[in-house]
């Protein structure tokens, strides 16, 4: 019996359950990702994506499965963006961060806990994300990204996510992405406020060098989660070739306002 025939005869209400995927791995000596690929390319939706179905088609889900996203920074923004993309079904993530979890990260950074203090952020995220989505392929870079020297890493992906906390590095990452024409999704937060941009450079946002505004306003967890959600939506829109941000977007969670600003 071929794998596809096996999957089709073991569906639940037309969906592929985890148990069938695990059984197929044993029968056909393949990995979980191979099973999911076989299903999606034949218009079979895994059961865990059932609640995505009214938003995304099975073909959309397959497009996400084939996508590769680079997340630069695995702290506040990067931790939540990576989880949302893993749960939505993005198939491959490259996580880049040379930092370790510290005690002051516990107020906001996803997967930071007493047990993970002192461990590399990218490695912790890899472990947790692969538990959430066994079809996900995660690569880690456990040193800080050096640009432009390591620009080849940017060339290997479909979308680049800016989850950095240093304005100078954010601007440099945006410039490098533009230079190779790679989709780029930016966010930054401070206090109740956040800012977003897609497919643009950032030097006009950071006219003065120095630390980000979060050093003055703080990094509350709810603003981080909000900003990561916007970034995740933008990544998905880019991967699915849907309309995305064309202006800077400013978020104000104190007044519950969203404001569009001209890119220039």
Automatic annotation (TrEMBL):
Coiled coil: none annotated. Residues 49-251 form the THIF-type NAD/FAD binding fold domain. Pfam families: ThiF. InterPro entries: ThiF/MoeB/HesA, ThiF_NAD_FAD-bd, Ubiquitin-activating_enz. It comes from the Bacteria. GO terms for molecular function: tRNA threonylcarbamoyladenosine dehydratase; ubiquitin-like modifier activating enzyme activity. GO terms for biological process: cyclic threonylcarbamoyladenosine biosynthetic process. PANTHER family: TRNA THREONYLCARBAMOYLADENOSINE DEHYDRATASE. This is UBA/THIF-type NAD/FAD binding protein. It comes from Sulfurospirillum deleyianum (strain ATCC 51133 / DSM 6946 / 5175).
